[in-house]
Amino acid sequence: MYLQSLSLLNFKNYTQIDVDFSSKINCFTGNNGVGKTNILDSIYYLSFCKSFFSSIDSMNINHSQNFFVINGEYQLHDKPEQIYCGFEQGKKKKFKRNKKEYDKLADHIGLIPLVMISPYDINLILGGSEERRKFIDGIISQFDRNYLYDLQNYNRALTQRNHLLKLYGKTGYFDVDVVDLYDNQLAEFGNRIFEKRKEFIDNIGPVFQKFFSHISQGKEEVQLNYESQLQQESFDILLANSREKDKMARYTTVGIHKDGLDLLLGDYPLRKLGSQGQQKSYLVALKLAQFEYIQMLCGFKPILLLDDIFDKLDSERVEQIIKLVAQNNFGQIFITDTNPARLNKVLEQIEGEYFHYLVKDEMLTKLN
Amino acid sequence: MDLHQLPSRLLENAVNEFSKLPGIGKKTALRLVLHILHQPKEDTLAFSHAIEKMKNDIKICKKCHNISEEELCSICSNPNRDESLICVVESIKEIIAIESTSQYKGLYHVLGGRISPMDGIGPKELNMETLENRIKNEEISEVILALSTNMEGDTTNFYIYRRLADGKVPITTLARGISVGDELEYTDEITLGKSLINRIPYHGK
Ligand SMILES: Nc1ncnc2c1ncn2[C@@H]1O[C@H](COP(=O)(O)OP(=O)(O)OP(=O)(O)O)[C@@H](O)[C@H]1O
Ligand SMILES: [Mg+2]
Ligand SMILES: [Zn+2]
User: What's the pLDDT tens digit per position in A14-70?
Assistant: First the structure.
């Protein structure tokens, strides 16, 4: 599966462009602010029906206009597919597959799997545990509707239980029967979520280590550690034991909403002790593991977008990453960088096709 | 829309009352009010009289909490209905829906909502006690739970189940599964999964 060509009309800084792509590696180089990331974002749009950066569609309309269009021509399982996205100020966003409009955007998401690695993803490493839960949940629920359903129900039951605990704090009234109900439901949904998260981490852990070791050329030891209170005790017992504590705290102190994913470098937390380059390598390896997981589930290779990933990395690691993604295990790749010379040096060493575009003045010029 | 621009306080009052109705905004309210204003006087009086009479004369059935004109509603007082069956629903709307299927000949019990502490609804706000009393005092052979299939509906089902769990009366719930006429390929995974788990014996038709 790959994107053959892309047309943008009034999308962000572009008035109108048409570009053809290689089915392997595509590079965009140019100075800061010329619109390299914007191209990747338009490709992201065609997969997820929204921008990677903002959920407000109108932000993506070129400032002097009132609509934008993104049109992509794909090859999907050896058949041409046309995906169209149009948005006009004040109207409903339109998505079409081969000229036929979708009833629901959700029906489109998943057709063209895609993984983006962006400088903003560093929150996954530096942010709180919620960021990492969101990462895990986002990937699993993309392919498992039952997981998403359990997660939504879990969160509802949790909100209801917390509401009862807060009410107890205010009024002293505690409805044991109803709290029992929610304990029961939390345990039912929570246990299934726990099992699936565990399975997911077990699955991507070794893949992640393989990629990291490739990027760092075996210089560092890394490990992903899933942390959940449910590992020690079954959820219903945890809830029963913590009830008095929860009444004092006025919220639910145990459960899968407290799960964490420890990112270890050697024996230490990466967040505190890792250098910026090590953190970046970690992030790239983690996202590439996500790539392989998605590929395993959908049976073909997602599109890979690498935005500015070479920033902070030494030339050895840059070279390792490019060599890695140029292999046949990966499919079509889009890379941005401010430094054409650095990219060219690596590209010359790899086999296989690549297109190198210079981005300047809202235009793309092919360099090779 | 700025209501202060309306030419009359009387008009403004009427618009305000209409816009309290669910799904009616100020604009629609104004359209309705202007329509009424241009109707013959008799029509308008009949309209307001119907509303007043409904509000004054309508009762709640003391057995099942359905709306009624007598102490007992037309369903509870119908001798042809099977008094040993109780179908538990959230509101009168569900009675209307189930009645329109013509498939059910038993009685109902209107709970008046579903458990949701966030919305200030606990078991005490629901018609639970009268349900328990009916089961204790009448000859009931089956309680059918027909609540919404979301989390709050499940919570309420489970609560009722626990309250009635001395096991004497069988409790059933509506089947969850694919709808009649659905193409399997387009059925969502959750529904399809539930249908598989709750599959039923096949008797050749
Ligand atoms: N809706 C819009 N209309 C017009 N221009 C826009 C719009 N949204 C963003 N831009 C412009 O796009 C430019 C940013 O583009 P982009 O983020 O793609 O740059 P880049 O080439 O990736 O830069 P860097 O090397 O710094 O990452 C900015 O100059 C911004 O003003
Ligand atoms: Mg950029
Ligand atoms: Zn009745």
Answer: 999 999 999 999 999 999 999 999 999 999 999 999 999 999 999 999 998 999 999
Nearest CB among A145, A146, A160 relative to B116 is that of: A160
- At A128-171, the pLDDT tens digits run 999 999 999 999 998 888 999 999 999 999 999 999 999 999 99
Task: Determine the distance separating the centroid of ligand 1 and the alpha carbon of A277, expressed in angstroms.
Answer: 25
Is some CB atom of chain A closer than 8 A to the CB atom of B158?
yes
Q: How far is the CA of B103 from the centre of ligand 3 (A)?
A: 18
What domain range includes position B7?
3-57
Probe site for chain A from B152, B155, B158 (most A CB atoms < 10 A): B155
Could you tell me the domains of chain A?
Answer: 2-113+300-366 (3.40.50.300), 129-268 (1.20.1050.90)
Closest-CA distance, A126 to chain B, in angstroms, reads 34
Domain assignment present for B193: no
Instruction: State if residue A118 touches ligand 1 by the CB under 6 angstroms criterion.
Output: no
Nearest CA in chain A to B119: A160
Q: Tell me what ipTM this predicted complex has.
A: 0.74
The answer on B46 and B95 residing in a single domain is no
By CA distance, what is B149's nearest residue in A? A153
Alpha-carbon Rg for chain B, nearest whole angstrom, is 22
- Supply the pTM of this predicted model: 0.84
Asked if B57 is an interface residue toward chain A (Cβ–Cβ < 8 A), one would say: no
| Ligand 1 site, residue A42, Cβ cutoff 6 A | no
